[in-house]
Amino acid sequence: MGPTRSYLICTTPRSGSTLLCRYLAATGCAGAPQEYLLEAALPGLFEKRGVADFPSYFSALLAAETTPNGVFGAKLMGAPDVFAAALARLRELPGLGAARLAPWDLVAAAFPRVEYVWLTRRDRLRQAISFYRALRSGRWQSTQARGAPPPPPPELDLGAVDDCLSDLLAWDSAWEDYFAGAGVRPVTLVYEDLVRDPGASVRALLAALRIELPPSWAPGPPERERLADATSERWLEAYRSGAKRARSGARRRGAAVEAGEYVRLEGVPARELGARVPAARLAKALLSRIAGGRRAPGAE
Q1: d(CA 120, CA 279)
Q2: How far apart are the first and last CA of the chain?
Q3: Quick one: 5-290 is in which CATH superfamily?
Q4: Alpha helix positions (H), 78-157
Q5: Domain coordinates of the chain in residue numbers?
Q6: Tens of pLDDT along 149-189?
Q7: Per-residue pLDDT at 263
Q8: Quick one: pLDDT at residue 231?
């Protein structure tokens, strides 16, 4: 059975996307969203489906992961290289390779009646710290090496946290530009709301997507523990206080990318995030390059 409608969760690392995907899959009515187009994972996914090429994989994927109500869901990360690789794969589908389609038109041609969910965070600094720790430790989920003692936290590098923060802002800004180019207003879901009340968040999301949720559904306990701990809190305070602001990365924040900008976002309602998140010129250039040289609407 193939899908009659679809949705894509557009997000960035350390935003709760794995948690959200598990809750959605457990409803039995929202597909089984995962990062199906991640280039690094495709060889194993091809083997799992018993196929040798992307068009065969994509066809088998849609047939296998669509729920009986005709809904298919997937997750996409906003990092430019990851997103560009996913778009390149979609161009391998029959009839989509020759046309010079903009990214949003390509996605709409591949996924039937596609709608978008933007999963983001209010507190970008905590997200950046979490991202940096995961990159340095290689531990992305609490279930990794379950039963073994957690590895010691990496040494704090405020410059590297800066770089993670800049990347996350650019990637979220690129999603905003993508939505503008597509002429769509995504359903916005915020990480802090999701972890505080997953049941209400999932219900609100599915209502916005017009997907009927079984009355008996209730969110179970999360299978993973949050990785944030006392070390994360110490780092947060060190960053905010500006202590020992030695930088060590190749990129540096501009004057508009100050810690206070992200702290002030903590209390902003989800509906206002799109207007309050600082724009990043880098994201516009990256999106234009992904589009094959086309300038995204509003790009300079």
Answers
A1: 15
A2: 44
A3: P-loop containing nucleotide triphosphate hydrolases (3.40.50.300)
A4: 80-90, 103-110, 124-137
A5: 5-290
A6: 666 666 777 888 888 889 999 999 999 999 999 999 999 99
A7: 30
A8: 78
